[in-house]
Write a structure and sequence with these properties.
The protein is α/β, with parallel strands linked by helices and 309 residues long. The chain has ten helices and 17 strands. 35% of the residues lie in helices and 28% in strands. The chain is globular.
C-alpha cells in the first residue's frame, strides 16, 4: 500500500481538472451508477468536534474509497488546523488497500469548492463579483476555484470574527492579486453587492433571508452537512425558481432541505441537471451541497493516478 502525503497530493491537483472530475462524479451518482451510502457522523465531546465518514464505489470501477474528515473548532486556540482527515483507496477486485491519502482533510476541502465552481460554470455565469459567507479554508478555496471559471474583479466576504475576517481578506488578496477583496458588515450586505453567493459556515441559524436575495442570484450553500446546521432561511428555497441538490437522499436529512421539507419533491440532483442541457434562467437558484462519498472516490482516484502509479 502506498502512502501519499499532503505535499505530493497538492502537487497532483490541477484545479480545472478537478472541477471536470466532480461533474463526472455527480453525473455518475445521479445515474445510479454508484453505491454511495449515507455518511456516518460522530460528535466528539467535550471538544465540540465532529467526524464525517463517507464511502463510495462506482460499478465497474477499479477502486472503492473510505474517507474520514474531522473538524475540531478548539484547534484555533491550539494553533492547529481545525480540519483533518484521510482517504483509503482499495482495490474493487481484491479488497486490498492500494493507497492511503494522508491529505489532512485537504481533498475534502478541494472537492467541495470544485463542485460549487462547476455549477457556476454549468450555468454559464459571467459574474465578475462573488460573495462568500465564512472565513475559513473553504472560503479561500471557493474564491480560487471560482476564479478558474469566472473573471472575478471583486469578492465580498463576511465573517463573525474580525481577526479571522482580516486574515481571510489578506490571504485572498495574495492568492488572487488581480481581484479586489472587500469586507461586508453583514450577510445582507454581501447579498446586495452580488448575485453569486457561497455560504461556507458551520451556522445553525439562517444567515440570509429571502428579502436579502436579489433576482438572478445563484446561492451555493455548502456549510450544512449534518443535522441541525442551517445557513439559509427556508423561504429562500420556497421562493427559488430552481432548487438543486448534490443528493436528494442526503440533503433532506443533512442539508438546507432538512429545514424546507416541502421543497423536497421539486429538488433536482445536480448531476441530472448537468445532463439535461437546461438553459440558465433569471430566477433565484439554490444549490444545496452536503458532500458525497462519490466525490471523495473520484478525487482520490484522480490523485492516485496522477501521482505516478
Amino acid at each position: 500500500m502506498r502512502i501519499l502525503e499532503l505535499p505530493e497530493i497538492q502537487r497532483a491537483l490541477v484545479y480545472s481538472e478537478v472541477i471536470a472530475r466532480m461533474r463526472d462524479a455527480l453525473i455518475a451518482n445521479s445515474r445510479g451508477e454508484c453505491d454511495t451510502p449515507m455518511p456516518m457522523h460522530l460528535d466528539i465531546q467535550p471538544e465540540g468536534g465532529e467526524a464525517h465518514i463517507k464511502s463510495s464505489y462506482r460499478r465497474g470501477g477499479k477502486y472503492f474509497a473510505l474517507k474520514i474528515a474531522s473538524t475540531f473548532p478548539g484547534n484555533v486556540a491550539r494553533d492547529l488546523p481545525t480540519g483533518n482527515g484521510m482517504t483509503l483507496l482499495c482495490s474493487a477486485e481484491t479488497g486490498e488497500p492500494v493507497a492511503l491519502l494522508a491529505d489532512a482533510g485537504h481533498l475534502t476541502d478541494v472537492r467541495t469548492a470544485a463542485v460549487a465552481a462547476m455549477v457556476a460554470r454549468e450555468f454559464e455565469r459571467q459574474d465578475e463579483v462573488m460573495g462568500i459567507l465564512g472565513t475559513g479554508v473553504q472560503a479561500r478555496l471557493q474564491a480560487q476555484m471560482h476564479a478558474q471559471v469566472l473573471d472575478l474583479v471583486r469578492i465580498w466576504i463576511w465573517g463573525r470574527t474580525p481577526q479571522r475576517v482580516a486574515e481571510c481578506r489578506r490571504d485572498l488578496q495574495s492568492l488572487l492579486p488581480r481581484t479586489d477583496v472587500f469586507v461586508a458588515d453583514s450577510p445582507a450586505e454581501v447579498a446586495r453587492q452580488t448575485r453569486l453567493i457561497v455560504t461556507c459556515t458551520a451556522s445553525r441559524q439562517p444567515l440570509l433571508s429571502a428579502a436579502d436575495v436579489r433576482p438572478g442570484t445563484l446561492i451555493s450553500a455548502v456549510g450544512s452537512d449534518s443535522p441541525g446546521k442551517q445557513e439559509l432561511d427556508p423561504e429562500i428555497l420556497q421562493r427559488a425558481a430552481l432548487v438543486l441538490v448534490d443528493s436528494r437522499h442526503q440533503c433532506e436529512k443533512l442539508g438546507e432541505l432538512q429545514h424546507a421539507p416541502g421543497e423536497w419533491g421539486r429538488a433536482l440532483e445536480i448531476g441530472a441537471f448537468c445532463e439535461s442541457g437546461a438553459s440558465p434562467h433569471d430566477g433565484v437558484t439554490v444549490c444545496d451541497f452536503t458532500g458525497l462519498g462519490v466525490e471523495d472516490l473520484y478525487i482520490a482516484e484522480y490523485c492516485y493516478e496522477r501521482s505516478g502509479t
